[in-house]
Every structure is written in C-alpha cells, then in structure tokens.
Amino acid sequence: MPIIEFNHNKYESLEGETVLEALLRQGIPIPHGCKSGICQGCLMRYDNYTPTPVEQNGLSASQRQKNLFLSCQCKPKNNIQVYEPSESEANQFKGVLVDKTLLNDSVMRLRIQANLDYIPGQYVTLWKAPDAIRNYSLASHPDYEQLLEFHIKRISNGAVSYWVFDELETGQSIKFSGPIGTCVYPVNISEDQHQIKPMLMIAMGTGLAPILGVLKDALKHQHNKPIHLVVGTTHSNGFYYVDEIHELIKSHSNVKSHFISLEGNSNYSTQGNIYDFCKQNFPDLKNHWIFVCGKASFVQKMKKQCFLSGAQLSDIYADAFL
C-alpha cells in the first residue's frame, strides 16, 4: 500500500483511500470540511508527485505552481510526501466581526472587517475549528461596501451555524480562507456590449447572498438587457431583504423581481412552485445568462430545467450549497 510521509512521519494508506482519509484514520488532525473538494480546507503541498486535474480543481494558478492539491481528492497509487501549506499559500486571512443581525427567524447576517480581494458572487471558507469548516457566499460588493457580508442559515445540529447564532460575538476575530468560486458576472464578455445577454437570476433561501453580489456587479457594469430576479422560499416568512432589493433595483427599469413561496401569502410575493413559475414565465432561455444559487438538489434540478428551456450549459452559472 502507498506510504504517505507527512511532517516527517510515515503512514500507510488503504486501497482506495484518500490522503485525507488515511491521515484522519490514524488520528492526525488535518483541517477539513466538505471532503468533496469544495471548501479547500484540506489543502496540502506535495513533493515528487504529479496531481490529476481533479486534485487541483478550483485552485488558482499560483496555488498550482506552489504544488498545492486537495488531499480529499487524492488517492495515491505510489508513495507520496506531503506538507501543511503556509497561511499565505492556503489564502488564509482573518477578519473581525463588526455586526451581527437576525434577518428572519433562521437567517443571520454577519458583517466582517477584513482585507480581501474578491469578485462579487464568490464564497469563502469560515474556520470555526480545523474540523468545523464551512463555505459561505459573499453578499457584498467591494466597490459599494467596505465590510464583507454573509447570510448564514441556522442548520439543525450544524457544527458552525449554531456557533454563529449562539456564541459568536461582535469584536471577535474570525479565520477565513479564499475566495473561491466562478459564479460571477462575466465581466470580460460584457465589455463587448453586443455580447451582453438577458439574465435570469434564481435564488432559493440564502442562495440570495451570492445572487445579490452578482446583481450589484451587473448594475455596476451597466448591464442594459432585461434582468429577472426570482427569489424562492418554502414559506413566505422565509423571505428577507425584500425592501433592500426593491431599493436596489428601483432606478433600473430593466430589472424585475419576483418572490415565490410554496406556502403563505404576502403583499409582495406569489404563492406557487418556483420550478413551475420559471417554466411558465421564462419558457425560452436561449441566449440568456442564468445564475442559480441554493441547496445542491435545487441547483441541480433548476440547471437541468433551464438547459431544457434552451440555455447553454456554458451560460449557466451556479453556486450549490453543500
């Protein structure tokens, strides 16, 4: 079996086992979160090894050049020598919690003071502890807000969300890494006004956070084609930021918002199924840019629906919450 040398100690891996699984099995406290290559919490640096594309998926060119890889995706066939990356190599940084506000019964807004170069719509990894790491999307825009903004949903038995809701206090230092993600406004394409396409932006729950960031960026770049923002929840009491959205778009006649809840009524929302609403109101999505954010199951189903309605896969930008 392949031998993994880590911090000058040698450990035997089992057949089909990833580097992360092998080290965790032997009691080595390796930082990790999703174990699926999304959070990048398990980054390591290698020697004398040629990684596969999946082992470096989502890493920056700089990180690849520094021999970084995702230990949760690496199943070595031969002996491998690995090291912990430095904070700079892993794009780790710290911020200070400035504001903590409950937006509805289950969503908390955090505003963080930190120095971070990011693109609206990207996400970062929040580190509560080495074994409690979660991804959260940015709702802010660096040209409009000085603070990083996150919308965090309380998850039953959630290792990080309970800490955010019940323990985290303003003034406290928080560790992050990132930014990560490509669910962003296509700036390079939009520089050619003839290539700009109408946009359909679909958010479920706190999927609204990255969608807001992308919408702000589209407006900053003076997107002049129609933009439809569709926000869905299970119950109408799950909506938040309704007034803020109306304020954001009121001076942009090409932007329309739609709030769809499966249950409950309000004076600004429609009761119904968000899949049916999109299918009935946007039956032809050829030559559209599509943005879909929310739980993985929702994103997967909505992406398929948009594709069947004519959208090209290359024009569908998605952020799936695991």
Placed side by side, the strands forming the largest sheet appear as 9-8-11-6-7-10
Helix amount: 10-25%
Which series of helices and strands comes N to C?
EEHEHEEEEEEEHEHEHEHEEHEHE
Uncertain segments of ≥5 residues (pLDDT<50)?
none
Total helical elements: 8
Largest sheet: 6 strands, antiparallel
The share of residues in extended strands comes to 25-35%
- What is the chains' assembly state? single chain
Span of the ends, CA to CA: 32 Å
Report on this structure.
- This protein is an alpha/beta fold.
- It contains eight helices and 17 strands.
- It has helices at residues 19-25, 61-65, 161-166, 187-190, 208-220, 242-249, 274-281, 296-308, and strands at residues 3-6, 9-12, 43-47, 68-70, 80-83, 92-104, 107-113, 123-129, 132-137, 148-153, 173-180, 199-204, 227-235, 255-263, 269-271, 289-295, 316-321.
- The chain is globular and about 65 Å long.
Task: List descriptors.
322 residues, alpha/beta, 8 helices, 20% helix
What's this model, at a glance?
With 322 residues, this protein is of the alpha/beta class.
SSE topology sketch:
Elements: E1 3-6, E2 9-12, H1 19-25, E3 43-47, H2 61-65, E4 68-70, E5 80-83, E6 92-104, E7 107-113, E8 123-129, E9 132-137, E10 148-153, H3 161-166, E11 173-180, H4 187-190, E12 199-204, H5 208-220, E13 227-235, H6 242-249, E14 255-263, E15 269-271, H7 274-281, E16 289-295, H8 296-308, E17 316-321
Parallel strand pairs: 1-5, 12-13, 12-16, 13-14, 14-15, 16-17
Antiparallel strand pairs: 1-2, 3-4, 3-5, 6-7, 6-11, 7-10, 8-9, 8-11
